[in-house]
Amino acid sequence: MSTAVLDQPLSRMNRPGAAARDATRAFLARAARLRAPSQDESTDNVLLVVAELVANAIRHTVGPCTLHLELLDGSIDVCVTDDSPQPPRPRTPGTDGSGGWGWFMIKRLATRIRIKPVPDGGKTICAELPW
Hints:
Layout: E1 5-10, H1 16-34, H2 42-60, E2 65-72, E3 75-82, H3 101-109, E4 112-117, E5 123-130
Antiparallel strand pairs: 1-2, 2-3, 3-5, 4-5
């Protein structure tokens, strides 16, 4: 069976959020040709999680990051690798516009979340979403 995989380095200098969204849209179009999503909101959910993980990597680290997407049986694995070994620090979401909703949203949308250390001192955060 054919599969879809994307490995996209994201430079801090070249609008990494926009580059990640564009690469994700192209990947999802390819994935949909291989296997239609199981839910109407699957595409939007994957795009939301990609945007949040990439934004957090850019906001909370100093180096580049890498986006990895993979079509699995019934899901899409969204992984972002950055140069910080620090895990995400969830905070109580604020209703005053101060944020804190990203990790909460990722946890609600993903069926599985993994945080793996990277040998050179960084980490990879993976969120598996239904497809």
